[in-house]
Hints:
Layout: E1 4-7, H1 11-23, E2 27-33, H2 40-44, E3 47-52, H3 63-72, E4 77-79, H4 89-97, E5 101-102, H5 107-114, H6 116-125, E6 133-134, H7 141-151, E7 155-159, E8 168-171, H8 177-192, E9 197-201, E10 206-215, E11 221-233, E12 236-242, H9 249-265, E13 270-279, E14 289-295, H10 302-309, H11 313-321, E15 338-345, E16 347-348, E17 354-355, E18 358-359, E19 362-364, E20 371-375, E21 382-383, E22 390-398, H12 401-414, E23 416-418, H13 424-432, H14 434-437, H15 445-448, H16 462-487, E24 507-515, E25 518-527, E26 533-537, E27 551-555, E28 558-563, E29 566-572, E30 588-590, E31 595-600, E32 607-608, E33 613-619, E34 622-627, E35 632-637, E36 644-645, E37 650-656
Amino acid sequence: xxxxxxxxxxxxxxxxxxxxxxxxxxxxxxxxxxxxxxxxxxxxxxxxxxxxxxxxxxxxxxxxxxxxxxxxxxxxxxxxxxxxxxxxxxxxxxxxxxxxxxxxxxxxxxxxxxxxxxxxxxxxxxxxxxxxxxxxxxxxxxxxxxxxxxxxxxxxxxxxxxxxxxxxxxxxxxxxxxxxxxxxxxxxxxxxxxxxxxxxxxxxxxxxxxxxxxxxxxxxxxxxxxxxxxxxxxxxxxxxxxxxxxxxxxxxxxxxxxxxxxxxxxxxxxxxxxxxxxxxxxxxxxxxxxxxxxxxxxxxxxxxxxxxxxxxxxxxxxxxxxxxxxxxxxxxxxxxxxxxxxxxxxxxxxxxxxxxxxxxxxxxxxxxxxxxxxxxxxxxxxxxxxxxxxxxxxxxxxxxxxxxxxxxxxxxxxxxxxxxxxxxxxxxxxxxxxxxxxxxxxxxxxxxxxxxxxxxxxxxxxxxxxxxxxxxxxxxxxxxxxxxxxxxxxxxxxxxxxxxxxxxxxxxxxxxxxxxxxxxxxxxxxxxxxxxxxxxxxxxxxxxxxxxxxxxxxxxxxxxxxxxxxxxxxxxxxxxxxxxxxxxxxxxxxxxxxxxxxxxxxxxxxxxxxxxxxxxxxxxxxxxxxxxxxxxxxxxxxxxxxxxxxxxxxxxxxxxxx
Length: 658
């Protein structure tokens, strides 16, 4: 076994690797950016070393800097995790050149599978079916547009390099092709340093099914069955499960053998995933699946495979990198039950899943039979705009799919996060969705059911506001009481008592608030019928009803009320504390999150139509297009492309046409 390992990654996967490495008796070495100085993985590692500023290109993507730390600390190996440098052949080569074991496949395998066009040609030679499309080198826009026409719409534009849904656009009609191509190429260049794309036929009713493969350096290759990753949004996986619902044994066998052949074709070593798209119009059939790509690394969703096989894939990675032979054959591996994983993200489903940043004022996960939590943060940590906004992977295992989904839904309902908005309620609804439960889904399931899943603006939770206002009032009363006690040792008179003292009758006092940034008014109600008690009335809520909340979390700037998986921030309103720079004047287009303004498509004096593209903001490795809210004239461009912008910053000012 290797004596030590440097983890060239951060967050959840760094914590995951450290746990297994330390169990195996290995010395663990973390590298971190300035933004991660207090991160959980830094605390867990035996030693940690700063490698640069927060932007990944200046820290986690700095090969020379990471190799230098590995040499200085005498690291026997480097584990790249997933993302960042995990699929960069030059990183594997740099490790080899410096006598450091790369815990992953050979650089030659990474190169062979790193470019989707070349990978498809390679696996075709091995007899693996591929999706019809153009996988060549020519990148002229007119040529690609013609190829899309020949293939037939809808088509999928995909970055040749990389993965994770970046540089990928579905195009329904020819009129949308040019804009989609430009956006895909720009995002691909930003994420992978390579703007090249391929164009493929979009498979209707597609199921995204992948096969986990594992190989040692002695020529042994096995598959560890399949995972279904069809529940996606913007080509990003949301919920993954193993095994795939409705998978016939003969199809599992055919797909497994195809994946093994793909791995053999490139001399693969270690953990890898061969991804397929299956045509699910008439159920899963062994003659209707196509190779998409091979991820030459550990996958985010590997825990579901671990739970149904009883294997530790990170341990197997270390053993393969040490030159050990696989301790089992294909016949030794069996499926045990069902496992489902949900990706808990700091994002707001009520605002089109915009990333949400900030301090985690509370973070609690449930414990119980069949529940596993993989996380890289803890209460008090900061979710920054620099990296992927994943908070945790919530995973459930059960004897049946129904039991696993029940456990996952319950676990999501018991998860407590205060600070950044999350998709917890959305994930719980997904687990409970009738079509998904029945196995009637494909990669378009989420888009077709957005409203039912609670996506988009939702009615304000009046009960949560009432609880929050009551908490603020209690806090202010306690502050005033302590102030009075500090002023005098004598008991204060009832006339100076701040708790709403009254002599006769019922009365109420106005309470100005900010609720999720919006100015509202609640009322503190004093009632003789309730022994002079007070409560808060707001909206349609009954101030004396026996309502419940999940949790109340205090923060210096307000109170977070968690109820039914949703979060409401209630703050005291100070009319003298207004951010005039970021006030919504009706014609103001603001940055929806912290990020980089990468493109502006208009200039002062331009007339724009409702829905027209105005600008693009890049945050957490994804592009977010800003569009005109109505027909208007552009009067001001307040930020230059390339600028880092804060959430709420003025970008474009519009004058609405009369």
